[in-house]
Amino acid sequence: MSHNDSPLKDVLLQWMHGEKVQDKLLKVRIEEIWDAQWGRAFNRHMKDLRFKSGVLYIHLHSAVLRHELNLQKQILRLKLNESLGEEAIKEIRIR
Fold first, then answer.
1. What sign for the dihedral angle of Cα 9, 14, 18, 22?
2. pTM to 2 decimal places
3. Radius of gyration (Cα) for the chain, nearest Å?
4. Model confidence band, residue 43 (pLDDT cutoffs 50, 70, 90)
C-alpha cells in the first residue's frame, strides 16, 4: 500500500507548486496583509483585489484613491513584499 502513497504525494506536491495554486495562496496572504495594514482606509472603496503571475491588480471606486495609490505603487509593492517575506509582487496595476 505504501508504494501507492508516493505517486499521489508527488502529484499533490506538483499540483501545489503549480502557478495557479501558488497565485491563489499568495492572493490569500496578500488579502490578509492588506486588511491588516490598509483595510480600514481602503476596503470600502475597493471593488476587487486580484493576483496573477506576479501582478497585483487593485480595482477602486474612488478616482482620488486610485490616483494616490498610483503615486505610491512602488512603496506599496515594497511593503507588501516585505510582509510576504518574498518578492512575489513584481508589479501593481491600479484601476
1. positive
2. 0.75
3. 17
4. confident
